[in-house]
# Entry
Amino acid sequence: MKCFSFYNGEKKDEPKSTKSVSDRSNNSTYVGGEMRRSGSELNSLDVSGNSTDALRRTSLPTLSQRTSNLRVFTVSELKSATKNFGRSGMIGEGGFGCVYKGFIKSGEDPSTKIEVAVKQLGRRGIQGHREWVTEVNVLGVVEHPNLVKLVGYCADDDERGIQRLLIYEYMPNRSVEDHLSPRTDTPLPWARRLKVAQDAARGLTYLHEEMDFQIIFRDFKSSNILLDEHWNAKLSDFGLARLGPSEGLTHVSTAAVGTMGYAAPEYVQTGRLTSRSDVWSYGVFLYELITGRRPIDRNRPKKEQKLLEWIKPYLSGGKKFQQILDPRLERKSIIRSAQKLAIVASRCLVRHQKNRPKMSEVLGMVNQILESSTGAGSPQPPLKSLVSREASKETEPKHKRKIMD
# Structure
């Protein structure tokens, strides 16, 4: 599923030899210059707060301002690591370009090699240099168990010109989208889906609330959640990320971009971005886990193509609800757990973004579902009690709003 730009709700097409970041090579000098020129592109300010002071407050710390362990690679090193970017080693292709599996010398023990994924910026890729810079800026200064680790980067010259590449830890179990696909031979069992929901919520909570600055992911979706060798879920692809609003501002104003089916309605319509936009996307993803369906699927009958519209009539009762559960799951054994997760999803999908929970609150609800479904920990109160106070905000004297649009 590709990313698109939105305007007023409409789609618009659009090893030892490795140097450390502190080395003053031509490579790192070039990258540093590009960081300085492009760093502000990560931050799109509210037009009411575009003073120099506001710009200074909202600039994301770059590699030159924060300690980073990123390694700088040359094209020749990466050609060697990936067998000259051969198609036999290609493991993915997206808006940025192609991704190759490779082996590089460990930074801690050069006598050993580690598996990596090398993402190469394509000449005709939808995403480009700005997204490459954003990836380095974001993943160069943040670190969390539920964020894919960026090992290093490359901005080097060869016969093709400037080569821009990103080197990540290798995630052998591919993306969550791959395992939700009806064509997969390895559909995720329900317990693993709950764990994925928890891991993804942890990653978003870290980005939104646990640093001295806020990062809004802006492209949260199942294809950007990767699974490591132990099936831990990690957020990836930060090319569209933006810094959250600075003190005194309520939102960030940007050209609305994202993936159709995941983008929050108020963001698509106005371009006003908040962390609650990610919360909406997370709610869509929960229904993806519950149903095994994509947010938009043009291959289905017309009434079933848009996931959020299709599920509406089935959310009222137990027997009806079972009809939207992924048929590959043992429906009877997971019905109660899935209904609880649907409650959380619906809270994330409240039309008015101010009434959506923060990701830390969402994480608390998901943790409770996970504990009750596995029998771990002490008995927990019904999930409904956790969301009743927030849900009550949706009902006003003059209008009774639906919980989910």
